[in-house]
Amino acid sequence: MFNGLDDIDWGSLEHAYGSAEEVPEWVRGLVDPDPAVREESLDAMYGAVHHQGDVYDSTVAAVPYLIEALTLPGLPGRTGIAELLASIADLSEWPDEDELDEDDAEMRRQVARAGALAVAAAPALLRLLDDPDPAVRAAVPKLLVAVATALPDLAGLLLGLLGTEEDAETRRALFDTVVSLELNDDAIGHLLGLARSAPASTALAALIAVANNDPGRVPLDGVPELIDRAYAEEGPVAEPAGLQTDPLIDPIRVLGDEMTQGRRAPHCMHLIGELTDSLGPRVAERIAIVTPLLASPHDDLAGDALSAANSLVEGRRGDYREVVTRIAGLFDRSQQLAENAARTLRWWGPIAAPAAETVAGRLAALDARPWRHGRPEWIDRYSSQDLPRLHPYVELLAGLGDERALPLLLTALRLPQRPENTGYGLARYTGHADRITAEIVPRIPVLAAGERATTEWYAFQFALRAFGPAAAPAVPRLLAGPLRAWTAGTLGRIGPAAAEALPALRAAAAGDDPGLAVAAAGALWRIDRSPEALALLTARLDGPATTTAIEEIAAMGSAAASAAPLVARYLDAPPEPDWWTATRTALALWRITGDAERVTPALAAAWHGNPYTRLEIAETATGSLATALQPLLRAELAASERFNVGPDPSSGDEVADDERLLELCRAAA
User: Fold this and answer.
1) CA separation (Å) from 328 to 210, 361, 652?
2) Which of 107, 171, 351, 412 has the fewest Cβ atoms surrounding its Cβ within 10 A?
3) What is the dihedral of CA 153, 155, 160, 161, to 10 degrees?
4) How far apart are CA 182 and CA 192, in angstroms?
5) Distance (Å) of CA 610 to CA 289, 613, 636
C-alpha cells in the first residue's frame, strides 16, 4: 500500500503553511491502528493540506493515496478519508474562473485536478456503497456527488439503495445526498411512494428530499403524527458521552454524544426543522406541523419542534399566537426545555406578547425564592461575559414594556454586580424616566482618557437617550470625564436641559477628532440651536465622519436648507455603491427640502439594494414621501419573508425589527 508515496518530492510541494514534507506521514497516519494518531493526522490534513477548504499542489498529489486507502476493505479511518476526499473534490462552491482573481483561479484549477482524479476512480468508489462497514457506506454518497459526471443517474442509483439499506445512518446519508441533487419527476414520484410505505423516519426523510426540490408537492396531511411515530422508532443507540471517546482527541464527537443523550431516536434529530425549513413560504402549513408537536409529552420531540418554530418565526411572518401559547406551556417542563423556551421567546419582540401572563407568573414565583450568593433567582446564571444577565423572563417582559418587570430591573440596578443588559431594559420605561434616571446617575462609569467603554456604559446612555429632557440630572456625571462622541450624542438627546454642556461641546466641535466633532456639533444644535452648528457640520463633509455629519444635518430640517447642495453631492455622485450613505443622504435631503420626487429613486434603489435600510426609510417616510413610496410599502406588507433574513443574524433583534417595519408600513400605507 502507498507504493510511490515516498518517491514524490514533497518538499517542493506546498500546503497552507509552506513545505509539504510532512504529508506522507499524515497520509499513513490516516489509517493507523491507533485512533489518536488517525485523529491527529486527519486534523493535520484539514488544517494544512486542505486548510479552510483550499486545495494546493500537495493536496492533489495526496488524492491518489487517499483513494487507495479508502478503497481497501477493512482499513481503519476510511470514514474520515471519504469525508476529506468529498470536500477536496467538491467544485460546486467555486465560481467560474473568469469571476476569480489569478490566485483563486489557480486554486480552482487545483480543485478541478483533484476532482478529475476522483472521477477516474468512480467505479472503485461506487463499489463502496456495498462496503460491509455502514459508517463507510454512510460517508460515500456525498463523495459520489463530486464524481457525478461519471455516474449518469446518481439520483436513481441512490434511490434504489433506499429500498435495501438497513442501517439508519446510511439511509439518512442517502437522503441527505439525494436532497442535494436535482430530481426529475420519476425520482420525486419514487420518494413520494417511499413516504407512503416506508418506516416513519424514512418516510419523513423522503418528504424532506421532495421538499428541497419541489415544496409544493409535499403532502402534509398527517405529518405531525408521522413525526411522532418516527421519534418512537428504535434507532442507533448513542454511545454515552466520554465512554470511549477522548474529548481532547474528538471534541465534536463528545458534543454530538451529549446532544443525543436522553433522545429516543437520535437519527431523527433535526428532521422537523429540515422539513419545515424546506417548505419555505408555506407558513400556515409549517405552523400546523410544529404547533401540535410543541405539546408533545416527550422533551426530545417538543425541543426539536421549538427549534423548528424558532427558525420559522425568525424567517417568516405569520400568526404565531398559538405557537407562542404552546411554547409558554414548556415552562412547566424540564429545566433545560423551559430555559430553551424562555430564551427563544425573549428574541421575538411583540410576537411573544401572548406569553406575557404566563411569564409574569413564573417570574413572580422566581422572585419569591430566597436569594442565593447575593443574587435573586431571576438573575440568569449563564452568560458569555463576565457579568451576569437578566433571566429571559425579565428580558421578555421588559421588551414588551410590561410594568411588572420594572421593580426587578430597579433591584438589578442596585446589585453589586449588575446584569449587563439592565440599562437596555430600563430604556423601555420612559414613563418612569425621573425615577430611573435618579438610580442610573450615580452608577454611570466615569471613563478616563483612553479607557475602553463597557457594555454597561453604553446601556445606561442608551436609556438616558430614550428619556430625553427627563435625563437632565445625568448631565454633570456625563461631563465628569473626557468627552466622547457617544456621550456628546446623549447630551444632544437630552436637549436644552443639557445647556451646561455647551462649552465642552463647542470645544469638541472644533477639535481634531472627527467623530467627536460631528457628534458635538449636532448636540449644539439640539441643545440651543447654535448658529455655528451647520458650518461645523458641513466642514466635516468629505471626511471620515461624512455619513454621521449628514445625519446630524438632517436633524436640523429646513434650518439646514443652505447645505442642501452640499448634501446632494453624495446623492448625485456617490464615491462608490454605498447604500447606507445613499439612504441617509436621501433622507437628509427630504428632511431639509421636503422634495420627495428628488429622493424617491435613491431610496427605492437602497430599499432593494440593501434591505437593512428599510427600517430607517420607513421611520422617516411621512407625507408626500410616504405617498411616493406606497408601492414599496404595500409590497413589504404582502411579503411573507422577513426583510432582514440572513445567514448570520447580527443582533438577535431581527424579529422585533421586522415587526416594527410592518407597523410603520401599515401606518404609512
Assistant:
1) 33, 11, 20
2) 107
3) 120
4) 15
5) 33, 6, 14
> What gap in Å lies between CA 404 and CA 495, rounded to an integer?
30
**What would the pLDDT profile of 394-439 be if each residue is shown by its tens digit?**
999 999 999 999 999 999 999 988 888 899 999 999 999 999 999 9
Q: Name the one residue in this structure whose C-alpha cell is 407625507.
A: 623
CA–CA dist 418, 420 (Å, integer): 6
Nearest to 322 by CA among 299, 354, 345: 354
The Cα–Cα gap between 568 and 599 comes to 10
How far, in Å, CA of 289 to CA of 285, rounded?
A: 6
Stretch (H or E) spanning 103: helix 102-120
Distance CA 305, CA 418 (A): 34
* Ordered alpha helix ranges (H), 556-622: 564-572, 579-593, 596-609, 614-620
Q: What is the pLDDT of residue 578?
A: 84
Kindly report, residue by residue over 134-156, the tens digit of the pLDDT. 999 999 999 998 888 888 888 88
- CA–CA distance, 71 with 68 (Å, rounded to integer): 5
247-284 pLDDT, tens digit each: 333 333 333 344 455 678 777 888 899 999 999 999 99
Q: In terms of Cα–Cα distance, which of 618, 616, 651 is closest to 636?
A: 618
Q: How far apart are CA 261 and CA 106, in angstroms?
A: 45
Residues for the chain: how many in total?
669
- For residue 115, what are the CA distances in angstroms to 69, 80, 110, 111, 611? 17, 18, 9, 6, 38
> What are the phi and psi torsion angles at 442 (to 5°)?
-70, -10
Non-local (6+) Cβ contacts of 191 within 8 A are 159, 178, 183, 206, 207, 209, 210
Q: Which of 416, 374, 372, 377 is nearest to 394 (CA)?
A: 377
Pairing verdict, β 14-15 and 18-19: antiparallel
* Cα 433 to Cα 418: distance, rounded to the nearest angstrom: 19
Distance CA 394, CA 409 (A): 8
Report how far residue 615's alpha carbon sits from residue 619's, in angstroms, rounded to the nearest whole number: 6
CA separation, residue 124 to residues 72, 121, 149, 321, 464 (Å): 10, 6, 15, 55, 69
In 286-357, at which residue ranges do the beta strands (DSSP E only) sit?
none
Nearest to 324 by CA among 303, 310, 304, 334: 310
Q: In whole angstroms, give the CA distance from residue 557 to residue 546.
A: 17
Distance in angstroms (rounded) separating the CA atoms of residues 381 and 400: 23
